[in-house]
Amino acid sequence: MKECKIVSRKFAIEGSHTLEVAKHHNAYRSLEKRGEFTPTQMIKIIKDANLRGKGGGGASAGEKWELMPQDGDKPSFLAVNCDESEPGTFKDRQIITYDPHLLIEGIILTCYAIKSKHAYIYIRGEYKEYQDILQNAIDEAYEDGLLESCDITIHRGAGAYICGEKSALLESMEGKRGHPRLKPKQKEPEWFFGNPTLVNNVETIATVPFIIQNGSDAYREYGTHCSPGTLLFGMSGHVNKPGVYESEFGVSMLEYIEHFGGGVKNGKKLKAVIPGGVSCGVLTARECKDLTLDYEAMRTAGSSLGTGGMIIMDEDTDMVAVLKNILEFYHEESCGQCTPCREGTGWSDKILQKIVNKRGTKKDLEKLFELADVMNGKTICVFAPSVSSVLISFITKFRDEFERAVS
Amino acid sequence: MSFTFNQDDLNKIKELKTRYPSPDALCLPCLWMAQTKEGYISIDAIDAISEQIGLAPMQIYGVVTFYTMFHLQKPDRLQVDVCKTLSCKLCGSDEILKHLKSKDVYVNHVECLGSCGTAPMMQIKDKNYENLTNEKVDAILEELL
Asked: What is the pLDDT of residues A27-85, one digit of tens each?
């Protein structure tokens, strides 16, 4: 399997989080290129590279950048999404722990391209340990005069999964409850106190320096035509060597698990994989065969690549208990704004508890399908539709197990 | 007991105000300052924050109740946050939770804390303890209690 380290290049170097060591290993070199391009040209490079948002959505970053006004009368802002809360995902924390200067370098370039003078990093409240490392790096960058063109402010969240949704994140930064906003019909930037704002994931921004320094073609050398480049894929659950390992898109999922993860724990057989955080539909071992790790293949397989954080489950895993665990999460984290989601997640969770307690009936399974239908496409954000697809994928693919549990 | 921000806090608030387009944005930062100081968010603290940033106290209260990391009551024991989400569950968080039942701590079941690759885990006072075993939990708590 080809070694590709674009974002994780400095992770293994001791002291890589300090400016001295980072600079010794060529940090901030891409800034020298900044003068060669106008902001519009820089956006074009990112668009040509087809850099796709690495927070789970996979939308074109360049197209998002293009939405930012180049000559408006209002100030523009960048909000970096470090609210990493999707179960199974732990990649952004690696970047801010082992190479925070790469993120800062990416922020400086992005702010130049979208003509922003201020960037915020919205970090989840539970990441205080890593936030301190990041803050130290920002302080070092200020002292070194690197942040003359833009300011960086860390904004600490306080334990709400939904604040990873871009508009909820901005609501939260505006000092409100983190409720997602209604989406406009036309394409437009996000708004922070009425000012145009770009929201991008940490890893997306951390990929920018490589592309600016080496050009869009260099990035496209990795990965597939539609999913170019690399991603910090991760593995957790029943795997021998859990962790985050960068790889290009388009590699075989099973080979990746074998090569980096050392295969399934205790020599057991693989039963299922949730490919990119619990909000992606589950895949059976048979479906994983010949499956590659890119956005298109995952969609064809009826799931999605999400954040690339795979949860591996061995042959002895009780899928009813797994689904119950996931619904508990959704029940706890629904923001409560839309009725189908607020009630639907709680109701499904209760039904699954009943099934786990061996008091479930066939009717309960039907009710779960009904609830999945009620939650799909009737809410402000994609939280409830994800719950819906998770419910359907589990019960359909492991129907035998669920029927046994209710008989 | 009344709550007041000291001069250092006020300077920090003044500095932060220059970093945002509206003082409303200081809601979460100020709540964190208050909770770090007292261990919880008192009604007096909410009033003090309201005075600083101009949001109505009720609005700030609404924010406090939305975010799970803010507490309206003073904790009486050491709080231990244990992740119980899928990856941790697959790697034995149930066992850790059972073990913690016998300890004199407040066990808080929380959702994914982003330590899936180093599961099971717990967090105490913002610090992560990962790859837990019952023996490790004993050693950690002995040091902290």
From this structure: 999 999 999 999 999 999 999 999 999 999 999 999 999 999 999 899 999 999 999 99
> How high is the ipTM of this complex?
0.97
- Specify the pLDDT at position A1: 84
How many angstroms separate the CA atoms of A240 and A257, rounded? 9
Is B103 an interface residue toward A (CB < 8 Å)?
no
Domain that holds residue B99: 79-144
Q: Please write the tens of the pLDDT for every residue from A303-340.
A: 999 999 999 999 999 999 999 999 999 999 999 999 99
pLDDT computed for residue A2 by the predictor:
81
Looking at CA atoms only, how far is residue A127 from chain B in angstroms?
Answer: 7
Question: CATH classification of A230-314 is 2.80.10.50, yes or no?
Answer: no
Q: How many distinct structural domains can be found in chain B?
A: 2
In a domain, B2, yes or no: no
Question: What is Dmax (Cα atoms) for chain B?
Answer: 50
Strand ranges (E), A63-169: 76-82, 116-123, 151-156
From CA A51, how far away is CA A89, in angstroms rounded? 20
Structural tokens at position A247: 């790889």
State the smallest CA–CA distance between residue B139 and chain A in angstroms: 21
pLDDT for A90-103, tens place per residue? 999 999 999 999 99
- pLDDT reading at B36 higher than 90: yes
Q: Does A242 sit within 8 Å of B127, measured CB to CB?
A: no
The SS3 of residue B142 is: helix
A319-406 has which fold?
de novo design (two linked rop proteins) (1.20.1440)
State whether B28 and A158 contact (CB < 8 Å).
yes
A292/A156 Cα distance (integer angstroms): 36
Interchain pair A87, B111: CB under 8 A:
yes
User: Which residues of chain B does A175 touch, with a Cβ-Cβ cutoff of 8 Å?
Assistant: 24-28, 53, 55, 63
Same domain, B84 and B134: yes
How far does A89 lie from chain B, in Å, by closest CA?
Answer: 6
Among B40, B64, B112, the strongest candidate for a mutation testing the A interface, having the largest count of A CBs within 10 A, is B112
